């Protein structure tokens, strides 16, 4: 049982269109897991998660970040954006209104354009971090794996797309998984430590929405600059094609589904 209030879902639960048998319960994505209540903690324990990957920056952790996890921080792509978050003290919120004012973002149209560019830049600036996270996620001995950031939309969405692409999911299926975030309860995909109080209602809605053009910007950047997701993850990295094939073999092995690892 997943924790729906935390934008959590089983990445392969919807299966594949050609009726291939794929393992479920091995890869989970979610928003942050701070301050879970007793029922949510019980649900989490029932999943048998072996590995948690936290993609947040240190400034985004709360005092309740006590869960054992592997931290692979992925932040904003530009130094001037980091100026508003990396100086934050633990008891302060990151004031997005101030950051957007500094960046000249005063409309949903400009925010969408900026976010698309941010996704494109993350592909290059944080390539080594995405490679590190993928290497953990594709290792059957680490599964079941859960990965998350703050809201489970942006950084988590890119990592999910990489893992699904490696399994042969179509672009439309990958985007459908990404847009599932929009089915969550209002506000659950924009949790603290961000202060939204000075943002207009329009900007708040745009910020929390998983617009498909965001993820398309990232995937198109990979296609244009590397040729494929597999190239992106293996060229001049320590991920091998054999490791990727082991991941695929494991995920499509119906016989071993009940006796995994």
> How many structural domains in the coordinates?
1
CATH architecture term: Alpha-Beta Complex
Mean pLDDT: 84
In which range does the helix fraction lie?
Answer: 40-55%
CATH topology: Protein-Tyrosine Phosphatase, Chain A
How is the biggest beta sheet arranged?
5 strands, mixed
What do these coordinates show?
The chain is built from 11 helices and 7 strands. The longest helix has 18 residues, at 108-125. With 261 residues, it is of the alpha/beta class. The radius of gyration is 18 Å and the shape is globular.
Care to give the gist of this entry?
By secondary structure, the protein is an alpha/beta fold.
Summarize this structure as a short list of keywords or feature phrases.
single chain, 261 residues, alpha/beta, Protein-Tyrosine Phosphatase, Chain A, five-stranded mixed sheet, two-stranded parallel sheet, 43% helix, 8% strand, disordered C terminus
Write the layout of secondary structure elements.
Layout: E1 9-10, E2 27-30, H1 38-46, E3 51-54, E4 70-71, H2 79-82, E5 94-95, H3 96-103, H4 108-125, H5 127-137, E6 145-148, H6 155-166, H7 171-179, E7 194-195, H8 201-208, H9 212-226, H10 229-234, H11 241-251
Parallel strand pairs: 2-6, 3-4, 3-6, 5-7
Antiparallel strand pairs: 1-2
């Amino acid at each position: 049982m997943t924790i729906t209030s935390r934008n959590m879902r089983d990445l392969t639960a919807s299966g594949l269109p050609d009726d291939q048998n794929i393992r479920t319960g091995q890869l989970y994505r979610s928003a942050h897991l701070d301050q879970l209540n007793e029922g949510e903690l019980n649900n989490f324990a029932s999943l048998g998660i072996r590995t948690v990957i936290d993609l947040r920056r240190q400034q985004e952790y709360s005092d309740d970040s006590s869960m054992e996890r592997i931290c692979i921080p992925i932040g904003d792509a530009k130094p001037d954006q980091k100026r508003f978050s990396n100086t934050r003290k633990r008891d302060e919120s990151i004031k997005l209104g101030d950051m957007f004012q500094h960046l000249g973002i005063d409309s949903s149209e400009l925010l969408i354009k900026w976010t698309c560019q941010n996704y494109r830049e993350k592909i290059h600036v944080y390539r080594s971090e995405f490679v590190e996270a993928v290497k953990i996620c594709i290792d059957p001995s680490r599964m079941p794996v859960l990965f998350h950031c703050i809201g489970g939309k942006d950084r988590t969405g890119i990592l999910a797309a990489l893992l699904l692409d490696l399994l042969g999911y179509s672009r439309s299926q990958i985007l459908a998984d990404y847009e599932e975030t929009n089915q969550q309860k209002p506000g659950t995909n924009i949790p603290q430590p961000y202060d939204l109080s000075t943002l207009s209602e329009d900007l708040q809605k745009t910020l929390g929405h998983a617009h498909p053009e965001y993820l398309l910007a990232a995937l198109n950047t990979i296609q244009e600059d590397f040729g494929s997701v597999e190239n992106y993850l293996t060229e001049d990295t320590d991920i091998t094609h054999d490791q990727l094939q082991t991941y695929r073999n494991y995920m499509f092995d119906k016989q071993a589904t009940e006796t995994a690892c």
